Amino acid sequence: xxPSKVLIFIPTxxxxxxxxxxxxxxxxxxxxxxxxxxxxxxxDGTGEIIEKLAEEFPRVRTMHRAGKLGIGSAHQxxxxxxxxxxxxxxxxxxxxxxxxxxxxxxxxxxxxxGDCHVVIGSRYMKRDSLPGWNLTxxxxxRFGHFLTVNLLGLPQDATGALRVYKIGTIPQELFNRVRSLxxxxxxxxxxxxxxxxxxxxxxxxxxxxxxxxxSKMSLRExxxxxxxxxxxxxxxxxxxxSFLLSSPLPPILAAELPLQDPQGWDAYWxxxxxxxxxxxxxxxxxxxRLAIRRNLNYFIHKHFSAGxxxxxxxxxxxxxxxxxxxxxxxTAVDISLPALESYRRNNPGAEAVRxxxxxxxxxxxxxxxxxxxxxxxxxxFTQDQIVQILREMGRTVKPGxxxxxxxxxxRATSVFVLKVIHRVLDFFRxxxxxxxxxxxxxxxxxxxxxxxxxxxxxxxxxxxxYFGMRDLLVQAVVVGCKR
Length: 483
Description:
The protein is α/β, with parallel strands linked by helices and 483 residues long. The chain has two domains: 6-241, Alpha-Beta Complex (Spore Coat Polysaccharide Biosynthesis Protein SpsA, Chain A); 252-482, Rossmann fold. The chain is built from 15 helices and 15 strands. The chain has an eight-stranded mixed sheet with strand order 8-11-10-9-12-13-15-14, sandwiched between helices. The longest helix is centred in the middle third of the chain and has 29 residues, at 275-303.
């Protein structure tokens, strides 16, 4: 029999009622896959059942472990087995028929035709995908999805086990960086894949309530998963490059001429470890991920289609671009090299990263972009400079292309809060140097009329203006269409 290039991995614990039926249904698909059962010493006789199946089915393999050592550690065993035996594709799934054998065939078809490294069966792509789930379990599952989306930047179903890994294109070292032994293995492995720029696709599935028995995830395990998620988030803020492999990131394209940085952005992006600013940096990072990223994604998706070529002019650290850099072809430009290094780490999938001055975008191909955007930038420039920035952005976009700028309003909640904080810091500095948590905001937006005046001077028609609760009343969104 010709060796298979596909391995289906199924961990088991007390699955005596399911293992044989699942094995027969998978074998009936005739997809030429080997099946590896990994049993954790099930007291109900599952181990004996899978041994009998291995005698009957030539493609069935078995693995036995001394006891219940954790679902994550079982998946790590499956990954190691797949690499050791030189499989090209690894499928993982549960044994309790919450994952349907027919879905395996669909996942493999997508993996075989798509330009991706991982395909996931997603519970969140269609309505009524959790039939039979009670309200408590459904709510907890969706809350977990909310956390992985907003803290780890993973828009996919990051906690499900139904996956296809094209391990022939993924270095084994990547999985060695995953430390979780429990259910958190699923989101941690996906997080590491994502941070290293591997392409992840999804396929909608329905996930019925467990066919036999009850959920095996205890409250203690849920607590451990939440703790691991928080640790991953904190590590991604403090040491964003700690998850990266040694493979090269997109190079930073150097500017042709030396750039002047009168506003001191290099110092801003390198001072984050000063004690007086650590708390601010942490809170700002959380806010960017939970509010600004959501706002950015909404308006970019509203005005541009998937695959659009976009310029991020004044990109900073790129903490909010993680989803867009996978869906759009983004060229990021900033005057600060430390900021660009952070952008590369946070967005390995960016099309290009360029060292440049947004007031003079001479090195950026003119007229080649579908649109351009920035956020947290224009408030640091005079109104005449903002017009110049927009004109430069406009020069890079096609006729009819759009620019989207996120411009903090003078009545923004953040303006009030930071003003209070700075006054408190000034009070306690006792004659020492002034502490400023961010560069001066000299051009906070006053009104829609001001936004219209600026974009029209720059050669655009104002097509949308928004200032509201989507980002907790911080940035006005100004969208202009190139005339």
